[in-house]
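Please produce the structure of this protein holding zinc ion.
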Amino acid sequence: MDQLDKAFSSRSTNASRERRVKILSLLRQRGPMTRAEIARASGIAKSSVSILVDKLLLEGHIHEVRSSSDNRSKSVRGRPGDLIVIDPSAGAAIGIEISFGKIIGVIGDVSHEVLASTTIEFDSSSNTNQMMKMCQSIVSELLSTTRVTPSRILGIGLGIASSINKFGEDRYNFSQEIANTTTIATKLSDLTGFEIHVENSANLAGYAEMIWGAGKAFEYFLYFKLDQDIDGALIVNRSVVSGANGGVADFGHIVLDVNGPMCSCGLRGCLTAYAGLESTIKQASVALGHEVSLKNFLDFVEKSDFLCKQLMEDCAHRLGQGMSYLSRVLNPEAIILGSSCVTLSPEFTRVLSQSFSKYSLNKNQYIRILDGQLGELAGALGAAATVLNHPLVSI
Ligand SMILES: [Zn+2]
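Below is the modeled complex.
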């Protein structure tokens, strides 16, 4: 083989390897796909996809599964039996979300099957070290429940309620102290021995809804997360936009009324100050004349306590108002609402939609407002997905 032949052969081998990696990366990020979907998403010609997929099937890197046994959207086109899924033994990812009063963990494999989930509650006095030890317990429990060996774990995604700047150096306010997010990742990595990817939990939940939940059908939507505070995610062209410094979609701090209640950001009348669960519970405690926990409050709402039900309605009303103001600027296809703390009732969504309609311009009346489909697991699932998004370098 002369030098020219060798160079050509090496280039074509590299190109083939790159395309194989691209296909495997896609399957890892998006879950089961048809050959046609792989071709569309990768930009590789259908005929080449067919050849590469057949080779990967032969080598055991991927499997073919029947679409009828798959729980994907009915909108997925293709013949039954032509869904391609990455070999589950290629690895698994753990996702953890530190939420309002609880830590939620999930473990899923690279084929996007959720293997187990668990939750630990914590009290408001817990410090960073204690929280990281609780995360470590979650990891141990998930591994022992599923019998997944640590060598199969590709990493841990950790969702926290803070914006993460591009240097990963933003600060997270645990109950008793301010902790640097890089420090949090290092502590958890030291405790578990795994690589840690830290991200804003609303961005993660929005991302998870885009891949598996209510956002599957949309290219451009807003995700609102109702937790201790209000936070959100902006999804454009099926990507979560983080902004120049991680600060996009801080929806909780749009000002509804400059004379409104004081907000933690230093301004008055932010959406969070009206509709965040922490402020709503504080209002309930003042009105009832005694300290109310989130659980007590939700029990009262469930039992149709007039005052607590009214506070939840006020929360829905303010959320609808905030969503309408944002829609004037962003004009999304849809708005998806989720929470890792509360199961939102149809009545909540009805009040919210009514309020949205009341404050919206005509052109925004068509915007669909939907409940998320992943419930309290959305943030943790998104955290696991960030691990699967980590680029493959070789196969
Ligand atoms: Zn604020």
